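Here is one chain, start to finish.
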Amino acid sequence: GMLFNLFFSSNKTLIKICLSSILFASSHGGNTIFGFLIYVFMGFSFAIVYAKTGKLQNSIAVHIITNAVATVSIFILN
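Its structure:
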């Protein structure tokens, strides 16, 4: 949310989405390029949700759902 509102003007949505998704991926530390790209895609998705709704809570909710699905999948596959 901070990147969207502080660093760029309102008409540069694609730049905001790309930068925030790369920062999201960097902060989640994928060990391989494939892992990094997965996090970039997830960050891109969360940024689009924020751009469309204007509410950070919606992106947080999607992030929680994504983490819950991943956690349940790990338990089911093991």
